[in-house]
């Protein structure tokens, strides 16, 4: 009896979620198609009892449940089946995963599966590889698509640094915008290999688009010694980063002034830094660094499909050095 009740509740939730997703898709699809944007968000915990995010990836759906203790294992597959039917997307193109919140977020870079399935999506005139199954994140942070456009618009003839580059999407945009050189740094070998694939996919050569497998502070230390200079940078660190040597542990709230100061040391006069975080209780402490201008541009960088009453998906600052 109890089980029947639970399943009935899940069926109602599945119907509500499907309705919402279909409605949202109809609302967003045309305008994104006009811009050739194939990845966008359809649902983000808009209904309090339905704790999930649903993203569109060029005919695929990624449905992530924000993990909670009270849901039983049937919940996510039931949501997946209902949304698949309502959206007419075959079940094999519906990818289900769990997303941990809060203090467990540090585990987001762990591998979930070994399917190695990848497909290509377009974002404007660029293309990116998506892996929908194997990690919590799929390879493209779609909430930063407007930031990427802003970076591209001012990248001509600049030396561009992409610190914490992940799969290199910002670097592809900068290269497309005419950057003289891009340098992309990440301490994950998987991310660097993926960034290389994205560069190749977009026809960008390795002589001027350099990929560095290193920890951010190690890179900055070496860049200082070698007097490497940049005119444009994206700094988008994780909220926390643990290293084997605990002296290099990084906590964005506490350590962002130290990080930004080290980046600033490698920037030429009149250059720009885009700094971003998705930490939900972040307080900027940049006054003492001596930047000539610090402007929060979050309202311009969050696209309409990511505007949510529940939380701010990211915050972003444009800094003039
Ligand atoms: C939030 S993601 C960056 C997203 C990227 N800016 C984008 O838009 O695609 C954080 C990245 O930082 C990398 N990372 C974590 N700790 C690091 C460290 N100490 N040094 C360099 N990279 C690190 C992770 O491997 C991950 O790729």
- Over all CA atoms, what is the radius of gyration? 20 Å
On the 0-100 scale, what is the average pLDDT?
A: 93
How are helices and strands ordered from N to C? HEEEHEEEHEHEHEHEEEHEEHE
Q: Would you identify the CATH architecture of the largest domain?
A: 3-Layer(aba) Sandwich
Distance between the termini: 65 Å
Low-confidence stretches: none
Counting H and I runs of at least 4 residues, what is the number of helices?
A: 8
Q: How would you describe the shape?
A: globular
CATH-defined topology of the largest domain: Rossmann fold
Helical content band: 25-40%
- Main sheet properties: 7 strands, mixed
Q: In which order are the strands of the major sheet placed?
A: 9-8-7-10-13-15-14
Strand content: 25-35%
Q: Class of the largest domain in CATH?
A: Alpha Beta
Number of self-contained structural domains: 2
């Amino acid at each position: 009896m109890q089980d029947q009740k639970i399943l009935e509740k899940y069926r109602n939730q599945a119907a509500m979620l499907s309705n919402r997703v279909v409605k949202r898709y109809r609302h967003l699809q045309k305008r994104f198609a006009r811009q050739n944007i194939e990845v966008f968000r359809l649902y983000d915990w808009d209904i309090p009892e339905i704790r999930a995010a649903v993203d569109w990836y060029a005919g695929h759906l990624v449905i992530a449940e924000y993990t909670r203790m009270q849901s039983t294992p049937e919940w996510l597959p039931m949501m997946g089946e209902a949304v698949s039917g309502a959206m007419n997307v075959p079940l094999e193109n519906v990818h289900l995963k769990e997303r941990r919140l809060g203090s467990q977020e540090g585990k987001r870079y762990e591998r979930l599966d070994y399917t190695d399935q990848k497909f290509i999506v377009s974002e404007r005139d660029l293309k990116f590889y998506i892996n929908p199954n194997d990690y919590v994140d799929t390879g493209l942070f779609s909430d930063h698509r407007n930031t990427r456009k802003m970076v591209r618009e001012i990248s001509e003839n600049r030396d561009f640094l992409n610190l914490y580059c992940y799969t290199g999407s910002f670097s592809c945009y900068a290269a497309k915008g005419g950057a003289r050189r891009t340098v992309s740094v990440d301490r994950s070998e998987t991310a660097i290999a993926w960034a290389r694939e994205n560069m190749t996919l977009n026809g960008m050569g390795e002589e001027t688009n350099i990929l560095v497998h290193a920890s951010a502070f190690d890179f900055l230390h070496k860049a200082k010694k070698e007097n490497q200079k940049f005119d444009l940078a994206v700094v988008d660190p994780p909220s926390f980063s643990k290293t084997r040597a605990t002296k290099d542990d990084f906590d964005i709230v506490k350590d962002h002034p130290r990080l930004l100061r080290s980046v600033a040391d490698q920037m030429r006069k009149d250059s720009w830094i885009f700094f971003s975080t998705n930490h939900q209780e972040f307080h900027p402490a940049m006054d003492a660094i001596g930047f000539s201008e610090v402007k929060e541009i979050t309202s311009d960088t969050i696209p309409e499909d990511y505007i949510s009453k529940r939380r701010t998906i990211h915050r972003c600052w444009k800094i003039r050095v």
